[in-house]
Amino acid sequence: MTLTISRILHAGYVFECEGTLIAFDPVFENPFSRNCHAFPDVRFDHAQIRDVRFDAVFISHFHDDHCSFDSLDLLDRATPIYIYCLFDELFAMVRELGFVHVHQLRVDAPVHIGTFAVTPREAMDADVDSMFHIQAGGLNVLNVVDSWIDPATLPALARFAPWDMVLWPFQTMREIEVLSPSRAAPAPPRLPEEWIEQLTALRPRYVVPSSCQFVQEPWSWYNHAFFPITYRQFEDEVGAALPSARIVRMNPSVSFVLGHDSLSAAPPLSWVVPVGDQNVDYQYEGHAQAPRTADIARHFPPLTAAQHERVINYCEAGLLDKYRDMELPEESFFETPRVWRLSVFDHEGQGTHFHYRIVGDNIEQLAGVPDALSWTTEVPVARLYAALELGEALTSMYMRMNDAVFDARTEADLQGAELVDDPLIRCLFNDVFGAYQAAQLRRIKERG
């Protein structure tokens, strides 16, 4: 018995065995997650996708590059949807989208669909992610998605070695480092050591460099700063460490038939249409100078008067209310009195600056310009509006922190500060769940 495995995009796959068809983290959009552009480039034939009948869809976690309502909206509402998520709100929204068979996945509890047994396995961040152990036709495939394997989980996975195939998230992401590029440490020149150790323990016959497959907007400096690992580097390092394994690149639409003794090409997915050169690779330029936020903001169209007013009202009132309602993390940089400047830049690169005094859980807006600052945050106004109303993710907001030199004591304190302690990040994203999906659901319902 054989197993056909096809790549959709990012962490999306289709598995077929003996007439049973299942999908994992299906995304049928380009760009997806608002500003992730497929790399290599593809388009999707939505008419064909609407005719596909999956026996089940499995979603590894709630992040918008894995759980997109615009993509799910293309599927038959009788399709069983299995989701690993600890939040009841997501299941309620999927049902509101019209799906009638919506199930919560639990770690180590297998789900049987036709010839398949799909078992969620515990990832390092078990509050968010899961991995998938897929069994069919006597074959074992581990889909690590884009999570990390907890060392405590590895022995249980190693008992299935040698794995027939492992879909491995081959990219590290510098989504935090790009928030403060002038202060970021250089990217390590090699793959993380634990990757090699874990792959060695799994002893896979085939390894697929998985996840990622996206860049930001064509003009974005992130395209050379976000992903430091190339396909070539992954193949060279993993190939040297696992000489008996075969490294297999699967671009969108590509399909393989996996057997007990072979791997052979299969017809590609007809509804995933490659565009241009598919054997592209990342080019990391860690030394590159980041453009000013004012210049980045010029790439975005102007807001309407009402949208701009929404942002200004938030900076003058909503942000303060939200901050006061939150509990300050332990050992926060803002436990002691700090002066924070928030700068928002419009489509002409013009900045509006807001100054606040923060002491612990309290925040007050300051009149005028203070003599000294302790923390700075910059953001394009269009992206701040998108975060407030459209579910924009932190990774595509082009926020910039602390591109300045402060007094000696502040500089010393910043050595131990966490960038995600930034007041704007906390106000936008702390205690917020499913904003992207909720915005999608509103738009879908408005379209009727």
Could you characterize the architecture of this molecule?
- With 448 residues, the chain is of the alpha/beta class.
- The chain has two domains: 3-274, Metallo-beta-lactamase, Chain A; 293-447, Nonspecific Lipid-transfer Protein, Chain A.
- The protein contains twelve helices and 24 strands.
- It has an eight-stranded mixed sheet with strand order 8-7-6-3-2-1-17-18, with helices on one face.
- It starts with a strand and ends with a helix.
- This is MBL fold metallo-hydrolase.
- InterPro entries: RibonucZ/Hydroxyglut_hydro (IPR036866).
How many distinct helices? 12
Percent of residues in helical segments?
A: 10-25%
The percentage of residues in β strands lies in: 15-25%
Terminal residue distance:
44 Å
Name the shape in a single word.
globular
Decide which structural class fits the backbone.
alpha/beta
Q: Quickly count the domains.
A: 2
Compact summary:
The chain is 24% helix and 24% strand. It has 448 residues and is an alpha/beta fold.
